[in-house]
Amino acid sequence: MFGLTALELARIQFGFTISFHIVFPAITIGLASYLVVLEGLWLWRRDTVYRDLYHFWSTIFAVNFAMGVVSGLVMAYQFGTNWSSFSTFAGSITGPLLAYEVLTAFFLEAGFLGVMLFGWRKVGPGLHFFSTIMVALGTLISTTWILASNSWMQTPQGFEIIDGRVVPVDWLKVIFNPSFPYRLAHMTLAAYLATALFVGASGAWHLLRRRDTRATRTMLSMAMWMILATAPVQILAGDLHGLNTLAYQPAKIAALEGHWQSKPGESVPLTLFGWPDMQAETTRYALQVPYLGSLILTHQLYGQVPGLKDFAPEDRPNATVVFWTFRLMVGLGLLMLLAGVWGLWLRWRGKLYEQRIFLRFALWMGPSGLIAILAGWMTTEIGRQPWIVYGIMRTRDAVSDHSVLALSTTLAVFVVMYFAVFGTGIGYMLKLVAKGPQESGPDESGPDELRPHAEAKADRMRRPARPFSAAPDVVEPDHPETWPAAPGAKEA
User: Which of 70, 77, 146, 75 is nearest to 105 (CA)?
Assistant: First the structure.
């Protein structure tokens, strides 16, 4: 297929499936915590706007959660089908870590998800709030175990190799490997940022379409506060993560900086843009800033950084790819910081909800958090190459013995099915977002009011409840002329 080898096709197939999967858990992590905040504010202030937003976003959470579970199952099977040699070699570590995720995070979420989605009228407010907290905690526990497993592959420790297989000898070192704390913080913050941008874009969308209600204003306001608080912390976490990567994976740092060779006694410039040429061993058309590379990478004016030429050609990651994926992630991160600061300035001037240029910017920034996560994931994983377990097992030794035809066929099937199934799911979720939160009266406290048909309650009682059951079967579009205007709505 297009002259690709079986190894390349296996990597593309796994990369394709995980790229679809990773966006759903990211939104799940962020929305679960957002729902905790909304329900907590509702219980504290008894302001119906928080209750309405809770019901609105819990419906979207249910759809997103279901798609995340389905897309994750495929990846688990791929470890055995496409990467059986890796599973044989390192399964004694990655297997238990994934099992711990199921025994803790999945069981916790499964135990309380039904109460959270369908128990608003059936249990007391304290128990319902506790259920929402437990679901949010479950998403964070899941993140912890997944990042522990993946981080061990990046910076392995706490093991011995016996008879050609990895054997864990210290589980604390396995779990709390050198890159784990930085990667866990970076990914969790990324999920919160991506969700805040998604929520903010939803609020901006409705305000641009002149649906100026307290709910839409509250969505935008809360999102901008979250972006303002999280973006600077994420930049700091990224800097610390970079220092850790330089210590344990210097070849990755050299590749994402397009840095080929350090000269003794001279500082390392920062290459803003360029085109790393792996064959010529140089970065063409480089636009560089003197000293800045040393300052950022080592926090010293004349700090030295290993170049790609310090590593054998077969041990170098593809600098052409990771150079640009890293800059895409960083560039979007700076735009997120701009969104937070811009929103603060407009809030101070009292124009946060009226400045249409800003609202358009917030709308276009909606998917930027997810794009940045994908770019960061590609930087991390492609930058680890040619190792699947860094310094221990090469990727070429981990792949199963499949033919090019078999992998080409399954890859084509995956592409068609994923776009059909998850494309439909994403489209449905966006329709729910476009529908917007529905205002309810002071005595209305359940999600059934969000259903478009009067018989929804009776219908729901006659069928088994699944995550998708929390979403309406039909999403009727609203018409702008029916939207209430609230130009004097109080700022959240």
Answer: 146
Tens of pLDDT, residues 122-167: 888 889 899 999 999 999 998 999 899 999 999 999 999 998 898 9
Sign of CA pseudo-dihedral 473, 477, 482, 488: positive
Which pLDDT belongs to residue 458?
Answer: 40
In DSSP terms, which residues pair with 165 in a beta bridge? 162
- The three-class DSSP label of residue 300 is coil
Q: Tell the burial category of 2 from Cβ atoms under 10 Å away from its Cβ (0-12, 13-18, 19+).
A: exposed
The residue behind tokens 């993560």 is: 241
3-state secondary structure of 474: coil
The tokens describing 455, both together, are 């018989």
Whether 212 and 485 have beta carbons less than 8 Å apart is answered as: yes
Alpha carbons 5 and 268: distance in angstroms, whole number: 37
The β-bridge partners of 467 are none
| Helices vs strands, H then E, count in the chain | 15, 6
Task: Please state, in angstroms and rounded to a whole number, the distance separating the CA atoms of residues 15 and 22.
Answer: 10
Name, of 174-178, 261-265, 474-478, the range with top average pLDDT.
174-178
Residues 189-222 have pLDDT tens digits of: 999 999 999 999 999 999 988 888 888 899 999 9
Q: How far apart are CA 295 and CA 290, in angstroms?
A: 10
Cβ–Cβ under 8 Å, residues 294 and 305: yes
Percent of the residues in the chain that have a pLDDT greater than 90, as a whole number: 34
Output the six-digit token pair for 343: 């929103």
Q: How far apart are CA 113 and CA 117, in angstroms?
A: 6
Tokens of 389: 């377990």
- Rounded (10°) CA dihedral 289, 293, 295, 299: 170
pLDDT classification of 286: cutoffs 50, 70, 90: confident
317 cis-preceded (ω within 30 degrees of 0): no
By DSSP bridging, strand 159-162 and strand 165-168 are: antiparallel
At 276, phi and psi to the nearest 5? Answer: -65, 125
> Over the stretch 58-115, which tens digit does the pLDDT of each residue have?
888 988 888 888 777 777 778 878 888 888 898 889 888 988 888 888 888 888 888 8
Rounded to whole angstroms, the Cα distance separating 308 from 9 reads 26
Nearest to 421 by CA among 176, 1, 74: 74
* Share of the chain residues as helix, strand and coil, in percent rounded to the nearest 5: 70, 5, 25
Cβ contacts of 410 within 8 Å, gap of 6 or more: 13
The H or E element spanning position 265 is none
* Residue 367 dihedral angles phi and psi, to the nearest 5°: -85, 0
- Mean pLDDT for 246-257 is 90
Q: What token pair was written down for 347?
A: 């809030």
